[in-house]
Amino acid sequence: MSHARWKLGRERQLVEGYAEAAEAGRAEVRLAMAFAKAVYDRRKELGLSQAQLAERAGLTQAKISRLEGADTVPTLPLLRRLALAMDSTLNIALDDDREEVAFVAHTAA
Known about the structure:
The protein is of the alpha+beta class. The protein has a single domain, classed as lambda repressor-like DNA-binding domains (434 Repressor (Amino-terminal Domain)), CATH 1.10.260.40. The protein is built from four helices and two strands, in the order ααααββ. 12% of the residues are buried.
């Protein structure tokens, strides 16, 4: 194999690797935005300010702002605290081509 063919093959591998990394990055952004929208929508549905939700969840208003701005990655305990504070169940569905996040209100029995 000539050096030129090796170089082309190496460049092709780099481009393919970059494309895969870019797609993974886009999926992460879509998930972060879906979660941020779900928090915002449920908070508005409840008529709460960021400060009020923060107080209910034992967080700071700044943390709620970062969550709604998709600027932070929530931990599992934080997800639970948010769901409890918003009197809801958190549903997350992940597929190859979609990410769905929803806080579903608890129904009064």
